[in-house]
Design goal:
Two copies of one chain form a homodimer. Chain A has 338 residues and is α/β, with parallel strands linked by helices. Chain A has helices spanning 3-32, 44-57, 88-100, 113-117, 121-126, 128-140, 145-158, 174-185, 198-209, 248-256, 272-279, 312-320, 327-330; strands spanning 71-74, 189-197, 216-228, 231-242, 263-266, 286-291, 323-326. In chain A, strand 3 and strand 4 form a beta hairpin. Chain A is globular, with a radius of gyration of 24 Å. Chain A binds chain B through residues 13-14, 17-18, 20-21, 68, 145, 189, 191, 198-199, 202, 206, 212-216, 220, 223-225, 227, 231-234, 241, 247-251, 254-259, 273, 276-277, 279-280, and chain B through 13-14, 17-18, 20-21, 68, 145, 189, 191, 198-199, 202, 206, 212-216, 220, 223-225, 227, 231-234, 241, 247-251, 254-259, 273, 276-277, 279-280.
């Protein structure tokens, strides 16, 4: 071989090996890839998800959706984390009242704080949504954004769910973690769209779900820019800014995301408008509800429940093409292994 | 060579070539990479940007910032696109009044609509912020979210800036496009944080700046979820929801992004609170203002201007370590080549 021939041979060899290397890496990752939805049992829910994702990512298919428009929105309470027997954020607010009580002597005589401090939950319950809002506002305002994020994050990491003996930040559903990963691996952007407080969830959504703070939509209090001791801060005010629930969910989606989701996942009648809005767009769409049917591994509740009421959505699911995910039947595991 | 030796040799060769291939690709891209800030002249602004990005991305340096916290926020009017001699969105509103006039016979006798339709801009101006808000609300509400996005996007693509003879969507600053790309290439997330309407900007931010709709923060009107002719839609209401300007900018950042930016770029006194909030965080930060000093290639205006007033920020820049970007001196080109 002369020099040119050697160079050519060397180049051919180089490209061949590079090609093989790339091909091998590609093949390996496909051949050895575990089932992306390993905790989803075979059944109509798993099938609907796989078919939907395959359809919208097939460049040559009629249902193809460009990556920028692959928006998936998930409710949080009861859809990504446990909400039963009481919404996590309400428990947080109740515990904060006890912690803050020494600084609020007036609570000893003011309802519903008095009842809460005395453990009289019947009176707290009787104070209704108005009483609950007072408790939430009193415990979620008056501090800076940074202070509240620290409090909420610490509490979610340090407080255990009584039934599952794991911190709230880990009382989250393994099949949904797999679904979020699977969607992102297929070019989706994943968002939380929850009735819960945006600032309550954000401190842990990245570590829990792989969802960054800016992809979390939720209810909020008014905040104010102030300079405190020479330091510019945001102070949380005792006033509701926005309730991101029911018909508020599509509004929150418009405000925060701009685009219309092509997949939405909820678990209660409060998610119906989000699912309707999602399904109402052009092209192929997927709307799903978690149905809590598993009294043993988690909880069983639906139509008559005081949290996560799932009633009208159950009735309307079949007619609207909504997928009802039966926790007991469809989920092989409920929580991540510890 | 026996079989094992051949296998070993083959494997070594395989890995060696693969390594060379990867190394070659890496080296090529570094060796041939053009200056990422090609339209920025040598000078203090360019130097400050390069030093800042190098510092916060150096894993072994004291100023290192994890990618998740590399948040950069940019004002839009006068910072990313032209705002002179009149904010683009105000021009859009004025033109919409003329288009919509046939459907609003009452405007013939109602100020400031009457004056606007008669071309009496002095009276329009005298109606002040209140009059302007009436015009904006009348032209930005009453339609669905999808309809408004179509109108705004079409107008921005089809309407020419009178001085630059290019559509508004291209009356954007080349050095800033390079900076946005450079930041993203260094793991930053780039956001728009503008006093302008969130729904007015979003239809074009991806094509103009590579910024997706969910990374745009702006002022908004109230919207409502409705079902119209069996179709779920969001309807824009004639009521201001939020003004994302001045002290509203840090609030908008908290609400939409959650985290505190480490770099913020504005051009007027209305951006001071955003820059203060950014600079007030822990660790290394960078705050910048475009100073419009280029009457020939763009416009020259600052302290006395009716749009994009830059006055207090100029006075306070040196003491606060804010970088003033002198358009005439610091920018080699102003607009993208067409």
């Amino acid at each position: 071989m002369n020099l040119d021939q050697r160079r050519t041979k060397s180049l051919v060899s180089f490209f061949l090996h590079t090609f093989i290397a790339i091909f091998a890496i590609g093949t390996c990752s496909i051949a050895t890839a575990a089932d992306p939805l390993a905790s989803w049992n075979e059944g109509p829910a798993r099938k609907a998800i796989l078919e939907f994702v395959t359809a919208v990512t097939d460049k040559n298919g009629k249902d193809y959706v460009a990556p920028a428009e692959r928006i998936a929105t998930f409710d949080n309470d009861g859809t990504l984390w446990v909400e039963y027997p009481m919404y996590t954020q309400v428990l947080f607010a109740f515990e904060r009242v006890k912690e803050l009580a020494p600084q609020h002597p007036e609570w000893k005589t003011k309802q519903p704080f008095k009842a809460l401090l005395e453990g009289d939950m019947k009176t707290v319950g009787a104070s209704g949504m108005k009483g609950l809002m007072e408790i939430v506002l009193a415990t979620h305002s008056g501090m800076t954004a940074t202070e509240f994020a620290q409090e909420a994050g610490d509490w979610l990491r340090d407080t255990q769910h009584p039934k599952f003996k794991r911190p709230y930040v880990e009382a989250i559903y393994q099949p949904q973690l797999e679904l979020l990963d699977y969607l992102r691996a297929n070019g989706f952007k994943t968002f939380i769209v929850s009735g819960g407080g945006i600032a309550f969830m954000r401190p842990i959504t990245q570590e829990a779900y792989g969802i960054p703070p800016e992809q979390v939509v939720g209810s909020s209090v008014v905040s104010e820019f102030q300079v405190k001791d020479g330091k510019p801060v945001l102070v949380r005010m005792p006033k509701i800014d926005f309730i991101n629930d029911k018909a508020g969910k599509p509004v929150g989606i418009y405000e925060h995301i701009g685009g219309q989701p092509i997949l939405a996942f909820g678990n209660s009648d409060s998610d119906m408008q989000m699912i309707e809005y999602t399904m109402g767009g052009e092209g192929r769409r997927l709307g799903l509800f978690v149905h809590h049917t598993d009294a043993e591994r988690e909880f069983a509740y639906d139509r008559k429940s005081h949290v996560g009421t799932l009633d009208k959505a159950l009735d309307q699911a079949a007619a609207n093409g909504w997928v009802i995910v039966d926790m007991k039947k469809d989920w092989k595991a409920v929580f991540p292994a510890r």
